[in-house]
Structure to design on (283 residues):
């Protein structure tokens, strides 16, 4: 398959594109990988349909795209320590990733993104929302943009995955998350980053992991962060992806947020996630 046979079709929402003519079960050429990476930087999230790949092929595709970054908190798939399970059982109430977030922003070198594959889906529901952090930034006033460009924010994993976190203390977590003592990461990143692939500016704070602005009081940070969280989750920036068996979403954490819709109580949903290593984020 020639690299120019891969095609991208924008979604009808505010973020993402569908990829046509890509078979993820085959080894991709360097030029195909380049095409996919640059599209990832441009669209923020790429959706693939009908990819009947087993865990070996999923991992081979991820290794084709980059280096795998193993998540320390998610339970791995049996026999595949580099693949994380994103699971919800019928009796469980909490779903992994229910709030708007970007993965691994608590790391000094945050993950590039993830390749999430649907394994078992509920009859109805279990969609994933994505939001466009380029568009969210672009839509702000020049005055606020200028101020945000001067700010840095602190991010942490402790309150989400550490010993004191709800996830670590709830029986509903049911072995899905572990290693609370490894929740030691804190990181400081620019509030507006220059995207490593596209060179565009993107808003880089998120409800799950951002603690506050460096040098600001908690209440001050909260007020502005709440404004930004409401602003960036407006429908015009978002797209709601409906999974089918064999669907794959590959997202870029530096250009998007995502959120799992937890609307399928009483049914199982099982996804396999492989996370790709990123790089330090420049202002
Ligand atoms: C994730 C995540 C969302 C979903 O895997 O990082 O947030 O819909 N998943 O499962
Ligand atoms: Mn996530």
């Amino acid at each position: 398959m020639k690299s120019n046979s891969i095609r991208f079709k924008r979604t009808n929402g505010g973020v993402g594109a569908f990829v046509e003519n890509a078979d993820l079960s085959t080894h991709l050429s360097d030029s195909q990988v380049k095409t996919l990476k640059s599209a990832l930087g441009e669209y923020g999230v790429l959706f693939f349909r009908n990819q009947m790949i087993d865990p070996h092929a999923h991992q081979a595709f991820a290794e084709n795209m980059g280096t795998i970054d193993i998540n320390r908190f998610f339970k791995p798939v049996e026999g595949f320590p580099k693949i994380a399970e994103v699971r919800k059982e019928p009796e469980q109430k909490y779903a992994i990733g229910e709030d708007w977030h970007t993965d691994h922003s608590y790391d000094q070198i945050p993950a590039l993104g993830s390749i999430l594959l649907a394994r078992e889906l509920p009859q109805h529901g279990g969609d994933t929302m994505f939001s466009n952090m380029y568009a969210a930034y672009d839509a702000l006033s020049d005055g606020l943009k200028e101020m945000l460009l001067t700010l840095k924010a602190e991010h942490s994993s402790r309150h989400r995955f550490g010993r004191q976190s709800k996830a670590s203390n709830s029986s509903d977590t049911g072995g899905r998350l572990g290693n609370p003592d490894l929740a030691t990461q804190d990181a400081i990143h620019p509030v507006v980053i220059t995207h490593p692939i596209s060179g565009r500016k993107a808003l880089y704070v998120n409800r799950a992991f951002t603690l506050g602005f460096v040098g600001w009081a908690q209440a001050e940070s909260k007020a502005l962060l709440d404004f930004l969280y409401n602003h960036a989750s407006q429908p015009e920036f978002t797209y709601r992806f409906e999974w089918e068996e064999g669907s794959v979403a590959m997202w870029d954490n530096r250009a998007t947020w995502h959120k799992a819709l937890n609307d399928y109580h009483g049914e199982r949903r099982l996804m396999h996630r492989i996370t790709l290593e990123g790089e330090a984020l420049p202002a």
